[in-house]
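anyone seen this seq b4? input:
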Amino acid sequence: MISKLEREGRLTHIRSPVSVEFEMASIMATLLEKPVMFENVKESKFRVVGGMCSSRDLIAEALNTCKEDLIFKLAEAINNLKSPQTVINAPCQEVVESPDLEKLPIMRYMPKDGGKYITSAICVVKDPEFETQNVCFHRLMLIDKNHLVARIVENRGTDVALKKAGGELDIAICIGNSTASMLAAATSLPMGIDEFSLANALERTDLVKCKTVDLKVPANTEIVLEGKITRNMHAEGPFLDLTTTYDKIREQPIIEIKCITHRKDAIYQTLIPGMHEHRILMGMPKEPTIFNEVSKVCNCKNVYITQGGGNWLHAIVQIIKQQPDDGKKAIDAAFKGHGSLKHCVVVDDDINIYDSDAVEWALATRFQGDKDLVVKPSQPGSSLDPSADLTEGKKALTCKVGFDATIPWDKKDKSFKAESYAKVDLKKYM
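predicted toks r here
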């Protein structure tokens, strides 16, 4: 994708010396996260690229589709997983060296950050029960040249595998990945399924065995950190999260890095927290999981996890209503499809789900609170919601609310369609 953007003149090059301390992040934000390459990093020999997945258009382009069909491309891949091949030699292992994380261009993004962070890496661990790999994102704060501290969300894939393993677990951290691998890491698949099979279903993704740990990583990734999640703990945070608010400081597991492998000309990939790339990568892969669940109970046409909801907490679900309770069934299925979802609005297929005014219009004209509101108090929710019950050591609890903004079944014979004026050729009248 870098080569394609380069050929088409869509990759901004910053050749002046820049620092990993706030400066690079500020440049990326000022560029509105357009793809950018930093050629001259003051603190590191590695070049840095950012903004590669900062829009739905860029992600769609990388997967050879259009943004309107992204959800269907992802849903098809989820339903038709393809096991990747393992190769012997790989670009990501052209250089093998002892760990010195301080040589990497690990960035500090904002003044309140707890430290320098790796933000765009995908982490690979193996579930000891199923012997399959789990692939996910963790924010990783630098401690010293061979230690990181990872934010590991309770009861998710890595945490579950870590508990099964007795508190220590091998890990491979991949920096500089294909769009397909990043989407696979952001998508939750059932336990026991190697999530690289999703990446390989989206595009060919060969794997290679790591040098020091019993794990496999994408052969074409740029940089791999091999190590172990330990029982030792360290303060992690604060850090800016999806909602553009700071997450709190927690005691989290320390990762000890044993080995670094990388391409000879490796490019370090970054993304800036709390903005579009972070939010799209987190939220968009949940759309097909919601779509698949809703499709089990009614005719689902599309799903959009909204920017206003931090690309995580709010979803618009579009259905073709065929039964009186389809709207409410869709609400229940949507919450099942994305466990962190807080608010869900279900609309008919004549509503443009990407237009917030159109969704609000559906609420104004088709929704009655005493009949169409679904309220689910004290539900497991997201720790990213600052208004939730975030009692230490417990799963975040929230009140989930669904809005059935579809045309009322007992009034479907009445006119609920928005009328439009005819288009005319103004040249005839000028």
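The longest helix spans residues 326-337. Residues 346 and 404 are 5 Å apart (CA to CA). kinda curious what u guys think
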